Amino acid sequence: MRGLHRTYRTTVGTLRRRRLEVEAVRGIDLEIGRGELFGLLGPNGAGKTTTIRMLCTLLLPTSGTVRVLGLDAVTQAREVRRRIGYVFGGDRGLYDRLSAYDNLRYFAELYALDPRRMRARIGEVLESVGRAGREKERVEGFSRGMRQRLHLARGLLHDPPVLFFDEPTIGVDPVGAREVRQLISGLQERGKTVLLTTHYMFEADSLCQRIAVISRGRIVASGSPRDLKSAVSDRTVVEIEAYGIGEPALARMRQLPGVESVTVENKDQAQVVSVQSRDSVQLTGRLMELLQGVRVERIGTREPTLEDAYVALVTGG
Ligand SMILES: Nc1ncnc2c1ncn2[C@@H]1O[C@H](COP(=O)(O)OP(=O)(O)O)[C@@H](O)[C@H]1O
Ligand SMILES: [Mg+2]
After folding, report:
1. Does 24 contact ligand 1 (Cβ within 6 A)?
2. How many Cα neighbours within 13 Å face the side chain of 243?
3. What is the mean pLDDT of the chain?
4. 10 CB under 6 A from ligand 1?
5. Every domain of the chain and the residues it spans
6. Which CATH superfamily is domain 232-314 in?
């Protein structure tokens, strides 16, 4: 991908219609090697789906070029399509009334698979996603995880060398998600090139050799999970679990000397505040001063994780 841009033009409002331009992708340069398992990581709305849809020839770039296996995704879209498979998160595109087998047969016909090979190939992909033996069951009774594996099977039918997965484990239960991840790393072992998007840090960390972090349509960092972690290795994180920390107190925390970022997560009724800083020596004391009158359950220091690196990157800390 070179200088990739994509702007959406929409209108909002019903009475007074306004034109709205959303710059979803604003200049992405990225090269992914053959056989690599690459992760595009970023929060919701960062532009991951937009990027991957351009790679899959499903969306035209506003400007810039996209090449897949040396082929131009715009002018040679048909050739590209034959060589790629994609699985998007969410749960559309399967026919509930049909069995798993019939769903795959439908897509096999769509992909123009050799009819003589079709039955065997469907058997193979069902085997590879661990669904052999249940192919006669209707999809309507399948769990989210089972559906997702069927989606994966669909993406593999024509045995493409390049695969795209957009949030492959979203909405899948933890056991199913682990199986999906195993399947994806198995694909790489079989020589496939895989690009996946996720907003789960640990997923990118456990699966990918290289990650690009994308935020507001731009790549803000890229490298191995280790590279990204080293960017925050000189920091410490003070974690506070408390009740009722107000916005003014958070704003004052952000202004303390050495503080790089302050993030808040809600856990049941409590707030978990993570304060990343370069200099933690006096920080805990200063934070406690700011928290007078607040019920603090727990305060402690820890090493930064990849998650913290990610937070720092996407919040500009
Ligand atoms: N079809 C669309 N029309 C208008 N805006 C869109 C459309 N699809 C996505 N967007 C906007 O583009 C931005 C990037 O979206 P997306 O690529 O889906 O991000 P991600 O997959 O990282 O969550 C968001 O601000 C989103 O609201
Ligand atoms: Mg998305």
Report:
1. yes
2. 4
3. 89
4. yes
5. 29-229, 232-314
6. ACT domain (3.30.70.260)
**pLDDT value at position 149?**
87
Mean pLDDT of the 65-75 span: 95
Total residue count of the chain as it appears in this document: 317
pLDDT score, position 249: 92
Phi, psi of 157 (to 5 degrees): -50, -50
What is the spatial distance between Cα 209 and Cα 46, in angstroms, rounded to a whole number? 21
pLDDT one-digit tens code per residue, 76-87 = 999 999 999 999
Residue 213 neighbours by CB distance under 10 Å: 24
- CA-to-CA distance for 262 and 173, rounded, in angstroms? 30
Homologous superfamily, domain 29-229: P-loop containing nucleotide triphosphate hydrolases (3.40.50.300)
Nearest CA to ligand 1 atom 17: 47
- Does the Cβ of 87 fall within 6 Å of ligand 1? no
User: Rounded distance, CA 168 to CA 89, Å?
Assistant: 5
Q: Give tens-digit pLDDT for 85-140.
A: 999 876 678 889 999 999 999 999 988 888 899 999 999 998 888 766 778 889 98
* Amino acid at site 217: G
Which among 1, 6, 50 is the best mutation to test ligand 1's pocket, defined by most ligand atoms within 8 Å of the CB?
Answer: 50
Residue 88 neighbours by CB under 8 Å, 6+ apart = 49, 151, 165, 166, 167
What is the whole-number distance in angstroms between the Cα of residue 287 and the centre of ligand 2? 36
Q: Which of 22, 214, 216, 219 to mutate to test the pocket of ligand 1 (most atoms within 8 A of CB)?
A: 22
| Residues 139, 97: Cα–Cα separation, whole Å | 7
Ligand nearest to the CA of 9: 1
Using CA positions, which residue lies closest to atom 24 of ligand 1?
45
- Give the Cα separation of 297 and 299 in Å (integer): 7
Distance CA 57, CA 75 (A): 10
